[in-house]
Amino acid sequence: MVDTVAARGRRERSRARRAPRHRAPVAAENFIGTFTGLGDLAYEGARVSASVVDLDSGRPLVAIDDRIVLPTAGIGKVLLLIEVSARLTQRDFSGYGILDKSHKDAVGGRGVWQHLQAPSLPVADLASLVGATSDNVATNALLREVGLPAVRRRAESLGLSRTAMLDIVRATRGPDDAPQLSVGSTAELAGLFGALARGEVVDSLTSSRVLGWLSLGSDFSMVSSAFGLDPLAHRATDHGILLVNKTGLDEGVRAEVGVLRGPRTAVCYSVTIQFNDANVWSRLRVLDTMRTIGFDLLEYVH
């Protein structure tokens, strides 16, 4: 077969290193590690997406395939918390209303209610458990109360077309179940957290209540591992840093969204990586990259 110049060119392009589409119109020098790290993962076959926006000015700082829809695991629980908070604001039910733990809610994984003796807890306490530990049993109990369709309608009312909570938490997913707990785009998720920080999600009371629940979050294994905060006590400013975040974790998925405030400025950010979780080294490679992104964020706001 004749090896034409065009054929050689196609082969060279196919072998060339492929990085995710990105733009960095402002302060690109602050995010060199972010672009390099996510580009390396994309070249190795991972699907990566990231969005960083200056909270004060609204300027986009990083946008790496930020419109694509990827699995986001537990991050979708933020949409549930927004619906619960909105109903509390509207007095549709009381935060002191008691919900029972049902065998239908039982699922392992994240959370502490499965290990507690208490068979019932108030709605507001369950929301706190979801914010603090992404509690799966509490999530299912709240979903049983408000209904998944209501959570979806709330997301749509907020203008989210690429971000949704698809199902309850399940130990295993069969062919008739949604393939993921939630999906989302990093552009929408970063924008959602920016709106929460500005008090624009439903209203200021609803937004601040959601932020209060999320401020209890204790998972600092990803981007936020770079901030040097105490994962069990970080609701107050520490060395000028204040963080509210939510993570999503599933096999082959690591995702985080949050608002980071520093002495100089603040950002809202979202990062999602879908990868081949074949061994611990692949997983650590992803976590190292997310920590690098965290260092870039910290340098920008501090």
From TrEMBL:
Region (Disordered): 1-21
Single GO term (MF): beta-lactamase activity
Superkingdom, taxonomy of origin: Bacteria
Nucleotide-binding recorded as keyword: no
Domain (Beta-lactamase class A catalytic): residue spans on this chain: 50-270
Biased composition (Basic residues): 8-21
Record GO biological process: beta-lactam antibiotic catabolic process; response to antibiotic
Keywords linked to the UniProt accession: Hydrolase
InterPro entries assigned to the protein according to its UniProt record, in alphabetical order: Beta-lactam/transpept-like, Beta-lactam_cat, Beta-lactam_class-A
Matches recorded under PANTHER family: BETA-LACTAMASE (PTHR35333), BETA-LACTAMASE-TYPE TRANSPEPTIDASE FOLD CONTAINING PROTEIN (PTHR35333:SF3)
Name of the protein described by the UniProt record: Serine hydrolase
UniProt organism field: Schumannella soli
